[in-house]
Design a protein that fits this description.
Blueprint (H helix, E strand, L loop, with lengths): L16 H4 L3 H5 L7 H7 L5 H14 L5 H9 L11 H13 L2 H12 L8 H11 L5 H8 L4 H10 L7 H7 L5 H13 L6 H10 L3 H10 L2 H13 L4 H8 L5 H17 L1
Length: 270
């Protein structure tokens, strides 16, 4: 297909339900009334509305056996949707994220690496990979970190692990025009122990704490960051368990002092 040609199938590939569905009986049956086996069998060839409903049902059931079928559903649309997102693929990716297993993570990683997910659907795939902890090749993460879509950039930050080759791009993302992408980059650098992420993480601890920020701040673990974590534990009881859990992992005298103080306060209150 040349750049000037239209992707005639981008919006609704395989629209002929008579040739794409597993059978009239299964098509008429509500997803929640299907057996696990029938649900899995119906997924790969399901039409649009049916695919979304079946994928949600598979995730709601925690149906691990559905991973290959969801993978097949995505692969059925390989090469389509370069100009617009493929809803069937998005539904499958959401279901795989909901299953939250090693097999689901591996499936999402393969779908991205094999180029099955592309175009406007790729940000959703990277988000699924981030939520599942999927491992992705460095070249794909480099492309994600410079993607025009902010969701893709943020998700790529969350997928970087401890890959040193990605550090320069993560530093660039600290100045991203989208604030929450910059926070994702700071968290990624923080998890690697890079202190230059400290200023943004400290600000987030003051203004917009999250479990991700707390974990990344703990990985830097210098004196200032430990003190900031201790202040958050004192000022925001809702975040105290997460902060104390991080402080317990640190071999730092200030962290030990903070933990002792909270333990003493708890004993006094009890």
């Amino acid at each position: 297909m040349t750049p000037t040609q239209l992707d005639l199938f981008a919006e609704a590939p395989f629209a002929d339900a008579d040739t794409a569905t597993p059978g009239r009986g299964e098509e008429a049956t509500a997803p929640d009334a299907l057996s696990d086996e029938a649900l899995v069998a119906a997924l790969p060839d399901a039409t649009l509305g049916r695919a979304e409903a079946l994928a949600r049902e598979a995730a709601d059931r925690g149906l691990a056996d559905a991973v290959p079928a969801l993978d097949a559903l995505c692969r059925r649309f390989a090469g389509f949707g370069r100009e617009s997102a493929v809803r069937e693929q998005r539904a499958a990716l959401e279901a795989l994220s909901g299953l939250d297993s090693r097999h689901a993570a591996e499936a999402v990683g393969r779908l991205i690496t094999d180029g099955i997910i592309e175009g406007p659907t790729l940000p959703s795939a990277l988000a699924a990979a981030a939520s599942l902890g999927a491992r992705l090749p460095t070249a794909i993460l480099e492309a994600g970190l410079t993607h025009e879509d902010a969701e893709a950039r943020a998700a790529a930050c969350r997928c970087t692990g401890h890959e040193p080759m990605l550090v320069p791009l993560l530093h660039e993302r600290l100045w991203d025009a989208t604030p929450w992408v910059a926070v994702a980059a700071a968290c990624a650098l923080g998890r690697m122990g890079h202190p230059d992420a400290g200023p943004l993480l400290s600000r987030c601890l003051r203004e917009a704490p999250s479990a991700e920020v707390i974990e990344a701040a703990g990985a830097i673990a210098d004196e200032d960051m430990v003190i900031r974590l201790g202040r958050l534990a004192g000022e925001a009881p809702a975040w105290r368990p997460a902060v104390l859990a991080v402080l317990e992992t640190l071999d730092h005298p200030r962290a030990a002092q903070i933990l002792q103080r909270f333990a003493e306060n708890e004993d006094a209150a009890g």
